[in-house]
Amino acid sequence: MRLSILLALAAASLASAETHEVYPTTHSPVFTTQREPLAVVRSGDTIVTRTWDSGGKDEKNVWHIEHPYKYPEHGNPLTGPFVVEGAQYGDTLEVRIDKVELNRDNGYTSFKVSSGVFLPGEDRGELEYGFEAVRPANSTLLPWELDAKTGKIRPKLKPEHSSGFKIEFDAEPMLGCIGVAPPSGEVRTSGPSAEYGGNMDYNDIVTGATVLLPVFNDGAYLYVGDAHAKQGDGEGWGSGVETSANVRMTVKLHKGKRLSIPRLINDDYLVSIASQAEFSSSMDIGLRRANSDMLHWLTGECGLTQPEAHALLGAVVEHKIVTYYGSIATLIPKKHVPARCHTFE
C-alpha cells in the first residue's frame, strides 16, 4: 500500500510539472537578484532556452553587444534569471542538464594558450590571427567550423599556420556559466566563479550531468550561459570553443539540504567543484575546499565512516584542473560508493 501511494504521488508530481520555453532578446552581465526573472518555475519544471556566445552573438550570428566592450558590458552574457518558487537560503537547487546542443556552424577561441601555463619564454609564437576575423576590433581570436550534423569541429587555420596535419575533434557542448545569485545581496560579474557557481568553465557540465548549487536567496535566481563546443581541462586558451547553444534543463529543489560549494553528478562520478580567486595561490585553496567537501559528502549522504572515506580519498580519488589557478574538481568513482548516494536526495 505504501509503495502504491508513493508511486501515485510521484506520478501526480510529474503530471503537474511544466515546460517553460524562454527565448530572451536581452541578457544579464551579472549574477544577482536585482533583475526581473525571465520565468518563475517550480521544482520539477523544465526550462528550454538558448544562450549567446561569450561575446554576445546569437544562433543567427547577430551581435547583441557592442565591441569593444563599453562599461558595464563584458564577456559571458547570461540567460536568466529563472526564479525557482519556494527556494530559500539553506536549500540545494538541482539542475539536470537534459541537453546542450550546437545551434550554429561557427565558433572561436583565443589564438594562443595563455602564457601563464608555460615556463617563462616557452610560449614563443604569433600573438595575432587576423584583425576582425571573428569580432570587431580584435585580432587575437581564431575562428572554428562547427558541424552539428557530423558532430565534428575544426579550427580555421591559415595555410601559413598549418603543417598539413588534419586537426578535427568531436564536439562536446558544455555550459561554461551556471549559477545562482550570490549571498548577501552581492552582484557578481559573469567572469569569476565561487560558492554560488558562476563562470566555472567545467567541461563535465554537459548533456546528462546534474549540477547541484547552494541556494542563498529566496527564488535562487538561476542563470546559464557561455556555451563551449569543446574545451580542454584548465581552459588554457582562457576560453573554450565559444559558441551559442540550445539548452534544456530540469530543476529540482531540495529543501533544507545545505551545500557549501557546487557539486556535480554524472554516470560515473561524484564531483565537488571548488573555486578560488584566480592567481591568488597555486590551486591549493581550491584543492583543499574540494577535498573537504568530498569528505563531507562521503561521510554524510553516502553514510561512510571517517576511516572508510579516507580509504577512498587515498585510493581512488581523481582531480581535474577546471581552470588554471581558479577552480579544481575532486572526483570519486560512483562504483566505489553506496548506491544510496549515486543521486542527491
Provide structural commentary.
The radius of gyration is 21 Å and the shape is globular. The chain is mainly beta. The chain has three helices and 21 strands. It has helices at residues 2-16, 284-299, 306-315; strands at residues 19-21, 30-31, 39-41, 46-51, 78-84, 92-102, 106-110, 141-147, 152-155, 169-170, 174-179, 188-189, 193-194, 197-198, 210-214, 222-228, 245-254, 263-265, 269-275, 318-323, 327-333. The longest helix is centred in the C-terminal third of the chain and has 16 residues, at 284-299. It has a nine-stranded mixed β-sheet with strand order 1-4-17-6-15-18-19-21-20. Strands 3-5-16-11-14-13 form a six-stranded mixed β-sheet, with no helix packed on it. A four-stranded antiparallel β-sheet has the order 7-8-9-10, with no helix packed on it. Helices cover 12% and strands 31% of the residues. The chain folds into two domains: 17-259, Acetamidase/Formamidase-like domains (Jelly Rolls, Sandwich); 264-341, Acetamidase/Formamidase-like domains (Endonuclease I-creI, Roll), CATH 3.10.28.
